[in-house]
Amino acid sequence: MFSAILADISGNWENILKLVLASICGGLIGFERSLRHKDAGIRTHIILCMGTALFVIVSRYGFTGSFGNANSDVTRIAANIVTGIGFLGAGVIFLRGGSIKGLTTAAGIWTTAAIGMAVGSGMYTIGIISTLFIVGIQFLFHKVSPGTENMQLNELVFTYPEGSSILDDIKARLKQHHIHIQGVKISRNSDDTVTATISIWVGKNESLSDFLDIAAKLPELKDYSISN
């Protein structure tokens, strides 16, 4: 039995290398996403890319011996990957504050699956080039907004009771001070409070002291901080 396993491994080196390459490609994309503190990070993208490559490998080689000369469509499993990834991508898209969030992450998940399929099919160059394209696009165009050349990105962190409408008040006050909001990330705490992290663009010589003085007086605010 052990010799049979060794023989099987020696006959599948190419497929094993496909899984390794798919994991590397997924890891590169996931690393960039993790730097942005996205929920779908390194582990998600590695598993996703390797999994789709494995599906393609199984669909091409897994059933050859089982069906003999039967006329089986080896593209069926690969075709259904697209449908399955659509459901996974939909899970990271959500509506917050009147705007849709997570579209870039969902598109990245969808494309990562395509890269895994390419690698699993033996299209190594296409998979590698596509990975470099995605990572390059994410780094090049992330958080680039018109008029932000002389500005820096800061993060305001507010903690308040769950169910409070204080976040809408804070966002309205930021707009009154002509402060551009890049994005908002919300996390729920175990003590029935909510922590909101608001990414904002601020002029390099601009002070937030006036806004923070006003925000500190909000009755439901538990804690706040600023980082850059």
Supply database-style keywords.
alpha+beta; 9 helices; 228 residues; 2 domains; elongated; Alpha-Beta Plaits
Number of domains: 2
Radius of gyration computed on alpha carbons: 24 Å
Largest sheet: 4 strands, antiparallel
Terminal CA distance? 59 Å
- General shape: elongated
Order of helices and strands: HHHHHEEHHEHEEHE
E-strand count = 6
The overall pLDDT, averaged over residues, is 79
* Spatial ordering of strands, largest sheet: 4-5-3-6
For this structure, the quaternary state is: single chain
Report helical residue fraction.
55-70%
Summing up helix and strand content along with how strands pair, one would put the structural category as alpha+beta
> Could you tell me the strand content as a percent range?
15-25%
Number of helices: 9
Q: Are there runs of 5+ residues with pLDDT below 50, and where?
A: none
Summed up:
This protein is α+β, with helices and mostly antiparallel strands. Helix content is 55%, strand content 18%.
What does this entry look like structurally?
With 228 residues, the protein is α+β, with helices and mostly antiparallel strands. The chain contains nine helices and six strands. It has a four-stranded antiparallel sheet, covered by helices on one side. It has a two-stranded antiparallel ribbon with strand order 1-2. A hairpin with a 2-residue loop joins strand 1 and strand 2.
